[in-house]
C-alpha cells in the first residue's frame, strides 16, 4: 500500500492506492486477453483457457488469488459483470428472430427446465445423500446452460443458425429464471415459513420488477439518443457509453430492491434497446462485445481461481456419478423430449444434448449461498454448503472442460459443422 498526499486548501488529503491489487487486476485482464488470442488462434472456446488461467493463479496453483483478495466486493463485481454479459446477449436478439425461433426453445425453457430441476434434485438427493432443501437449491442453480459459455463456443464452432439460437436463447432465459428460483428457494430454506403461494409471489415479484425497470431504463435511453441532438463527432461515443451505463443502472436499481431482479432488468433492457433501432446501433453492438470479452475474462478467471479441489474431491465417486447422470442421461432425455417437432436431425439433437455447459451465474450464486450457510445465523449448515458448492463447481468444471472445450470436435464428429464461406 502506498500513500499519496495532495495539498488542497490547508488540509492534506491522503489518497490510498493498493498497488498490489491494481497489478493483480491488470494481470487478470492480461491473462484474459491472452486466452482470447489463444482461443482465436486454435479455434477453441475461450472459457477453457480462462479456467486454466484461473486455476493456475488460484489457491490450487500459485496462490496469487484467494477468497480474501477482493474482500466482500466479489459478489458485487460478479453481479455487475453478469449484468453486462446478459445485456449484451439479449441486445443481439432481434424480435423477429425470437418470434421465429425454433419451437424447441419454448419447450426447453418450460417443460425441459422443470424436468431438469426435478431430475437434478432427485439425483443429488439419492447419490449424495443431501437434504431435500440443498438438493433443490443445487437443482435450481444447474437448470440453465450458461450463455456466458455458449456464446464463445459459436465464435469458433460453425453450426446451423437454428442450433445456435436455440442454445443461446435457452441459456439466457433459463439463467434469468433459474437464478430467481434459486434466490426464492434459499429464502424459503433460511426462513422456513414460506407457503407454496409465497414461492410464486416472490418469484413473480422479482420477475415483474425486473421487467418494469428494464423497460423504463430502455425507454429513457431510447428517448435520449433519439431526441437529444449531440455533436456529430461525439454522438457515437456518447451512444456507446450511455447504453453501457443503462445496463449497469438497470441492474443496480432492480437488484437494490430484490436480489436477482437486477439480472432480469438488464436482460429486458438489452432486448428492448436491441429492437428499437437506436442510432449508431452497430457501433454500440461492437463496443459492448469488446467490453463483454474483458468482463467475461475477468469474472471467469477470478471464479476459477476460487476453486478448491478438496471440495470437489470430497464428493468422491458419487460426485462424478451426479455429473455423469446430468450430462449423459438427464440432458439428452430433456432435449429429445423438447425437440420432437422435426426441426432438428438426430445428430443435431445429440449436439444440443452434449453441448450444454454451465456458466458464471450458478458459480457466483453458489459461492454466495455457501458463505451465508457457513457464516450466517443459526441454524448454519456447513455440510450442506460443502455439497452445494462442490456439486455446482464440479458440474461447471467438467461441462466447461469437456463440452465447451471440445465443442468443435463434438460438432465435427456428429457432422453438424457448417463450412464457413
UniProtKB/TrEMBL annotation:
InterPro entries with a match to the protein in the record: Cation/H_exchanger_TM, Na+/solute_symporter_sf
Name recorded for this polypeptide: Cation:proton antiporter
Compartment(s): Cell membrane
Biological process, per Gene Ontology: monoatomic ion transport
Domain of life from the UniProt record: Archaea
Signal peptide annotation: none
Keywords, ordered alphabetically: Antiport, Cell membrane, Ion transport, Membrane, Transmembrane, Transmembrane helix, Transport
Organism the protein comes from: Halocatena marina
One Pfam family matching this protein: Na_H_Exchanger
Ranges of residues in domain Cation/H+ exchanger transmembrane: 31-403
Transmembrane segments: 21-40, 47-66, 72-93, 105-128, 134-159, 171-188, 200-225, 237-254, 260-278, 290-307, 313-338, 350-371, 383-402
Membrane topology: Multi-pass membrane protein
Location, primary (coarse class): membrane
Molecular function, one GO term: antiporter activity
CC per GO annotation: plasma membrane
Amino acid at each position: 500500500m502506498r500513500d499519496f498526499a495532495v495539498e488542497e486548501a490547508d488540509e492534506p488529503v491522503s489518497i490510498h492506492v493498493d498497488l498490489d491489487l491494481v497489478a493483480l487486476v491488470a494481470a487478470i485482464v492480461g491473462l484474459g486477453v491472452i486466452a482470447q488470442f489463444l482461443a482465436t488462434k486454435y479455434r477453441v472456446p475461450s472459457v477453457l483457457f480462462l479456467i486454466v488461467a484461473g486455476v493456475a493463479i488460484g489457491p490450487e496453483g500459485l496462490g496469487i488469488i484467494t477468497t480474501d483478495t477482493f474482500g466482500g466486493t466479489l459478489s458485487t463485481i460478479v453481479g455487475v459483470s453478469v449484468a453486462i454479459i446478459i445485456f449484451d446477449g439479449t441486445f443481439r436478439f432481434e424480435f423477429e428472430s425470437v418470434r421465429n425461433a425454433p419451437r424447441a426453445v419454448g419447450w426447453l425453457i418450460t417443460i425441459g427446465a422443470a424436468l431438469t430441476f426435478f431430475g437434478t434434485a432427485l439425483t443429488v438427493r439419492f447419490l449424495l445423500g443431501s437434504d431435500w432443501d440443498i438438493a433443490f437449491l443445487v437443482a435450481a442453480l444447474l437448470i440453465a446452460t450458461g450463455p456466458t459459455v455458449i456464446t464463445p463456443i459459436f465464435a469458433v464452432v460453425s453450426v446451423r443458425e437454428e442450433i445456435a439460437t436455440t442454445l443461446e436463447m435457452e441459456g439466457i432465459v433459463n439463467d434469468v429464471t433459474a437464478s430467481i428460483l434459486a434466490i426464492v428457494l434459499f429464502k424459503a430454506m433460511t426462513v422456513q415459513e414460506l407457503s407454496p403461494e409465497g414461492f410464486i409471489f416472490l418469484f413473480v415479484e422479482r420477475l415483474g420488477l425486473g421487467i418494469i425497470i428494464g423497460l423504463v431504463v430502455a425507454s429513457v435511453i431510447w428517448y435520449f439518443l433519439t431526441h437529444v441532438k449531440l455533436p456529430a463527432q461525439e454522438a457515437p461515443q456518447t451512444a456507446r457509453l450511455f447504453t453501457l451505463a443503462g445496463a449497469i443502472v438497470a441492474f443496480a436499481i432492480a437488484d437494490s430492491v430484490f436480489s436477482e431482479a437486477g439480472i432480469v432488468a438488464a436482460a429486458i433492457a438489452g432486448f428492448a434497446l436491441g429492437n428499437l433501432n437506436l442510432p449508431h446501433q452497430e457501433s454500440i453492438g461492437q463496443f459492448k462485445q469488446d467490453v463483454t470479452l474483458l468482463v467475461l475474462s475477468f469474472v471467469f478467471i477470478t471464479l476459477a481461481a476460487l476453486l478448491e479441489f478438496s471440495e470437489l474431491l470430497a464428493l468422491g465417486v458419487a460426485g462424478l456419478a451426479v455429473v455423469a447422470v446430468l450430462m449423459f442421461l438427464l440432458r439428452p432425455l430433456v432435449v429429445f423430449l423438447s425437440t420432437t417437432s422435426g426441426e432438428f436431425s438426430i445428430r443435431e439433437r445429440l449436439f444440443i444434448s452434449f453441448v450444454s455447459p454451465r456458466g458464471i451465474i450458478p458459480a457466483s450464486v453458489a459461492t454466495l449461498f455457501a458463505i451465508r450457510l457457513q457464516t450466517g445465523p443459526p441454524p448454519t449448515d456447513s455440510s450442506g454448503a460443502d455439497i452445494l458448492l462442490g456439486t455446482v463447481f464440479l458440474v461447471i468444471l467438467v461441462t466447461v472442460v469437456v463440452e465447451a472445450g471440445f465443442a468443435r470436435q463434438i460438432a465435427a464428429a456428429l457432422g453438424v459443422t457448417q463450412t464457413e464461406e
